Amino acid sequence: MLPVRFTNPRLRNALLGLLSAACLAFSAGVAYVLIAEPQAVEAPIVGRFSLTDDEGQAVTEATYAGSYMLVYFGYTFCPDICPTELTKMTTALEQFEAKSPARGAKVVPIFISVDPERDTQAALKDYTDYFHARLVALTGTPAQLRKAAKAFKAYFAKVYADERARERNEYLIDHSSQIYLMGPDAHYLTQFTAANSAEDIAAGLDHWVQ
User: Fold this and answer.
1) What is the average pLDDT score of the chain?
2) Domains of the chain, with CATH numbers?
């Protein structure tokens, strides 16, 4: 199934309203959003960021100008969804690279860690090695990450099991789990969710990447 990019403002806004209605507010102040299908996103989304890569170099979206960016927000301590989605994302890219090597080379897979306290440069390099040789890991200061997440309309927040965990600074991070496909100009093209398979994503790349 190919993700559909909605251009009708009324339809797009209606979908966004349904998405907002799915948010459940908990006493800890953390919102959880359940998304079953690829969702339309209010345009324009431009993937602007100023972060640091796993080589310690400062990068922005301009660093990858001319390439398609396949972007996922997460963190290395994530127990389940991050490794699952990154495996799916990079498997899809491998499938697309096998089908169309020249176009596949135009896609840069990017993992943005929202856990700068624990995700050091060394930790990120070790983590990305499990998934794809070209997977780039980025992170930054909390302010830089909040700004990047806002640009992508992504979400993340620390979650403590209880007050004792808070005192020990033992936490998980709740975060949105979309895989974004951004064009060569860093503008949003489409996104994929847990409902999409690696084959769906590979088909989406085949559709969008020129």
Assistant:
1) 84
2) 42-208 (3.40.30.10)
